[in-house]
Amino acid sequence: MNSTLHLQDLKARFPSAPQREKELFVIGNGNLNIEELIHLVDRINLSAGILLVDGGGNHFCRFFESCQQRKIELKALPLCLLGDLDSITEESQKKLTTWFPNMEVIRFQRDKDYTDFEAALQLIRIDWVARVVVLGALGNRIDHTLGNILYLFRERLEGKVCLLTTHQELLCVIGAKSPLKIALLPDQGLSLFPLDGKPKELLVSPTKAFDDSYNLFFGAHQEVELQFKEGAALGIVHQSKVPQTHLEPGMHIYEFNAPGNLLKDLQIVYECIKRPGDIIIDSPQFRIEGISRDKPFSAAVEIGQTISLIPLAGIVRGINTAGLKWALNSQWLDIDFLGISNEAISTKVNVTVDEGVLLCVINK
Predict the structure, then answer these.
(1) Residue 321: enclosing H or E segment and its boundaries?
(2) For FRET with 188, which of 152, 164, 205, 317 sits at 20 to 30 Å CA-CA?
(3) C-alpha–C-alpha distance, residues 191 and 236, integer Å
């Protein structure tokens, strides 16, 4: 079945019946190594099914063909292909509808104020599964990556939705609703990033000192239970300890967004928020810097260039822009209203804020 829907039209429909002991997988269009999918095939086969988000259909086609070539049985089927379908190829669409004639296809309008990732989560009966595991939600564009992460905070999907990177880094929201249990292997670490404001009083079992450092647990096989009394933070389970990056004021960071280095990338982004204007990321793909009352933003750009304004550390008030298609005039942005994928209509863009710190991402 094909249909064109707005976000408000979407009703949760997957899975069709409660399967509370099973995971449900979502495959997006971000960085995704097919070998990682092969590594997860036993876990996928035990799942309640798979949702393919736009270009995630390309990944799944390669995955399915690889399974056939290696004579690996794939029992879990794609329940749905969804999105504005501007990233999936015609060849992949044809293969999927031929292989899986009962798969539902849901097409959204292209000019929309929500992402395909947000729409996918709207379609899932999250309380009907053990958790939702999202692959390929990160990596292609850092502003989309940060937007997807903040969506987990907005919906307070604590422990129910996990993002898995190509190097098996696991991202989830740790909040105040209920304790979250995480089993750590001897070579794994857990790092917290208090995005969207500062949470209060982390309760940890077994007891572990916590300050504003990134890395919390290393070198022990144990089950950790975490909960904040108020607020939430992003938890990242990763495979090895990531050394702290020493950044001097005025530094420009050129090596950024390398596959498998999400934790290190987030550390540097976090420094841009803590020290707006002093730490600037200037990679071949994008430029990132923080904007505050004392550190306004001004840059030469090309007309049509994509610029995102992201309130990564909580609400930002009194935002004024010049040179952007969707102008902000003494307005605010917060976790419920992100400024993703604005567009330059002038060769110079200016942004000022009265309160808070705003992250500016210019896609090159």
Answers:
(1) strand 316-322
(2) 152
(3) 5
Q: Tell me the C-alpha distance between 202 and 197, whole Å.
A: 14
CA-only gyration radius of the chain, Å: 21
* Contact criterion met (CB below 8 Å) for 213 and 164: no
pTM: 0.81
Cis peptide before 284 (omega within 30 of 0): no
State the Cα–Cα distance between residues 339 and 147, nearest whole angstrom.
9
pLDDT for the residue numbered 243: 54
In this structure, which long-range contacts are made by residues 330-339, counting pairs with CB atoms below 8 Å and at least 24 apart in sequence? 330/354, 333/309, 333/358, 335/150, 335/153, 335/154, 335/196, 335/311, 336/154, 338/147, 338/150, 338/308, 338/309, 338/310, 338/311, 339/308, 339/309, 339/310
For residue 324, give the amino acid letter: L
How much is the pLDDT for 104? 95
CA–CA separation, 90 vs 16, rounded Å?
Answer: 28
Q: Collect the ranges in the chain with pLDDT lower than 70.
A: 1-8, 111-113, 156, 166-169, 196-197, 206-222, 240-261
Query: Could you tell me if 196 and 232 are in contact, meaning their C-beta atoms sit under 8 angstroms apart?
Result: yes
- Whether residue 160 contacts residue 126, with contact meaning beta carbons closer than 8 Å, is answered with yes
Residue where the block lists tokens 């999202």: 134
Give the pLDDT of residue 259.
47
Q: Name, in order, each residue with C-beta under 8 angstroms of 228's C-beta and a sequence gap of 6 or more.
A: 174, 175, 176, 199, 200, 201, 202, 203
Q: What pLDDT was estimated at residue 318?
A: 98
Q: How far apart are CA 272 and CA 170, in angstroms?
A: 23
Domains, the chain: 2-137 (3.40.50.10240), 180-238 (no CATH), 252-363 (3.40.50.10240)
**Euclidean distance between CA atoms 355 and 292, whole angstroms:** 7
Hey, what are 108's tokens?
């959204």
